Amino acid sequence: MGIEGVPTYSKSGNMDIISTPPGFVSQTSFVLRNVRRDKESTRSVSTQEQTTGFGTDGEDSCNMFLTNRPWIVHGHTIPSSEALRPRKTEGRRRRPLKVSETEVLEEAPVFNPTEEEFSDTLSYISSLRDRAEPYGICCVVPPPSWKPPCLLKEKKIWEASTFFPQVQLFGSHTENPKIKKEADADSDDAAPEEVQFCRIERGPGYTLETFKVFADSYKKRHFSTKDEVMGSENSSTSLKPEELTVAVIEKEYRQLVESPLVEIGVLYGNDLDTTTFGSGFPLSAPSESCKYPSGWNLNSTAKLPGSLLSLEDCESICVPRLSVGMCLSSQFWKSEKERLYSLCYLHVGGAPKVWYSVAGCHRSKFTAAMKSLIPEMSGEQPKKSYDPVMIMSAYQLSMEGIPVTRCVQNPGQYVIIFPGAYYSAFDCGFNCLEKANFAPLDWLPHGDIAVQLNQEKSKKSLISYDKLLLSAAREAVKCLKEYALSKKNTACYTRWNDSCGMDGLFSNIVKSRIKQEKNRREFLSNSLESQRMDKSYDSVSKRECCVCLGDLYLSAVKCSCSADRYSCLSHMRKLCACPCDRKSFLYRYTIDELNLLVEALEGKKLSSMFRWAGIDQKYCTAPATTSSQPEEGKGKETDEVTPCNITRKDVAAGTKEQTRVKARSMADILNVKDGNNDAKETLKSCSKKSNRPCENDSSEVNNTPKKQKQ
C-alpha cells in the first residue's frame, strides 16, 4: 500500500494548504522577484543570480527547475506557459554570415606559353605547379596558332544531340528537415543572414541549338527592365549587350546567392558524356599529320604517356565531360573525384565563365567553415541528384578567413584545377565547357590520401590505386632495364629516371606503400592460412571490401562460406561470423617480392630488375590472359618471346639483338646470379609455348617455396 501525494499551491500565498513532499522537513517558503533583463546594465544580472542561483545563460534550466517545486510561492511572478514549456536543447547553432560589399578576391595567375612550351602538355603543366598550385587554379592562354575546330557546331551534334539540363531554382525555400533555417542566437527581432539553398529539378530536353535560343532570350529579358526579376535597386535600366560586362553579371550573381528577393530558375547541362553526346575536339588518330592529337586535345589528355591514367581502363574518369551553361547558371562547390588534375577548355563562340577556388592546402579550413555554418551538411554535392544544394558566395567565404581565388576564363582558353582544390563557377551567358582528368606522377600522394578518406567514409573509389601504382612500377623497371642494356636515352627513361633511384619521389612512394602493407600483414594475417591469388580473382572486375569498399588488389580475406565476398585485413572480423580457421588470406605478391621491386626501382642491382620482371609476369593478371585455365594454343602474350643463343658477355656489351627482347623474356633467357656476372657459358633457348622460366633459373626467379606453387 502506497501513499499518493498531490501537490497543490495557492497563488495568494496561503502557506497552510501547501503540502510538503515526502523527505523534506523544512517548510520555509521564499518569494521570487520579477527581474527584467537589461542588456545595458549588468547589475540586474547579478541580482537575478542572487535570487535564483542561475545566471542568464541558465534561464531555461531555472524555469524548468521551478516548474515542479510546489513549495515556492508564485505570488509576485506568474510564469507564462510559453516560458515554462520544455525546450529542446540544440547542439550547435548556425553562425550568421559576414557580408561585405567591398571584399576583393585575389586573382588567379594567367600564363601565356610559347609554341615550344605549349608542345609538351604535361611538362608545361609540371613547370607551372610551384607557382599556381597555392592558388588551386590557373588560366592558360594558348598561342595564336592553336585554333582547333569546334565540332559541336556540326549539324549532327548542334541540331540532333539531345540532353536534359537541370533546373536550378535560386531563392527557393526547402522543406527538407535536415536543412531548416534557424533563428540567430544573438538577435531577438531581426532575421539573421541565412545560408541559401538551391533546389534542383529535372528540366525538359534541349539541343544545343534550342538551348542557345532560350539562353540568349533569357539573358536579354533578365537585364532589360529594372527590378523585373531580382528587385534590385542597383539594376540598370535597359542594358545593352555590350554593356553586360563580367563585373555587372558577377554583381547580379552575387546578390542572387547572398540575398535573393524572388525565386528565379536557370538551366544547366552538367556532366554530359562526350562518347554519346559528342566532343568539341576532333578524334584524330595519332598517325595523322595533324597538330590536334596534341595533349591539349582533351580526347587524348587522360591517356598521355606521362599520365598514370593511361595504365587504367576506366571510362568514367578517362572520358571527357561536357557542360552547357547559360547566364547565372552555376557549378556548385565541389572537388574532383580521387583528387585528380582537371583540364577545362571553353569552346569558342560562347560567353566567359568565372571560377572561384579554394586551394588544397586550405581544404580543412573550407570544410570546417561549411560545417560551422551548417552543422547538418558537409558542403559538398548531395548523394541524390535532385536534393537541395547549399550555395555559398565566394566573398562570404573570404570574409570567414578562407583564401579564395577568382579566375575569369574567356572562350578559347584553358583552366587547370589542381588536386584537392574546391571550386565553383558561374556562366555569363551561353557557353560549352569540356573537361578532362589526368594524373601525372606527382598526383600519387594525393591519390593515396583520397583512398584513405574513401575507406573512412565507406565510399567507393573509381580507380584502383594499388593497381595503378604497381603498373607504373612495372613500366619504370622496364625502362630502366632497357637503358641498362642499350644505354639509349629515350623519353620513357628520362621521365622515370628523375623519379626513381635511392631518394626518388616514385621510389619513396612505392617503398612507403609496401611498408604499410607489411605492417598490416604482420599484425592481422598471422592467424590465417595464406594463399596466392589466381588469375580469375579479378579478371572480370576489381575486388572491393564488403565493409569499407576499399580496393583489394594486393591482399584480401575470404571465407569458405561465401565465394564472391571479400574484405580487407582491417575488417576481416566483419566479413562473416565464421571462425578464423575457415578464413584464408589472399595475396598477389609476397613482401620479399615487393622488396625486390624496391631494389629494382632504386637501381641497386641489374639482377633485381630481371628477377622482378619474371615474378611479375608469372603472377600478374594480364588483360590478355583472364582465364584461369591455360590452354596450349590460346592466349599469346603481349610481349613476344624470341628464342636465341647468347652469352652473358653479349648482355654486358648491350647488343642490338638484346634491346629487342622484352622484359618478360629477359628472366627466361638470362640466368643472372649475384657475384657471377663474368661467367660466359652459353644459355639454352626458351620455348615459345612455355610460360615457365628455364630450369636453370628456377631457383633464382621463383623466390617462393614449392608448396606455394600448387
UniProtKB/TrEMBL annotation:
Secretion signal span: none
Alphabetized GO MF terms: histone H3K4me/H3K4me2/H3K4me3 demethylase activity; zinc ion binding
Keyword list, A-Z: Metal-binding, Zinc, Zinc-finger
Domain JmjC per the UniProt entry, residue ranges: 293-455
Descriptive protein name: JmjN domain
GO biological process: regulation of DNA-templated transcription
InterPro entries assigned: JmjC_dom, JmjN, Znf_C5HC2
Disordered: region residues: 38-59, 672-710
Compositionally biased residues, Polar residues: 43-54, 699-710
Entry GO terms, CC: chromatin; nucleus
Limits of the JmjN domain: 108-149
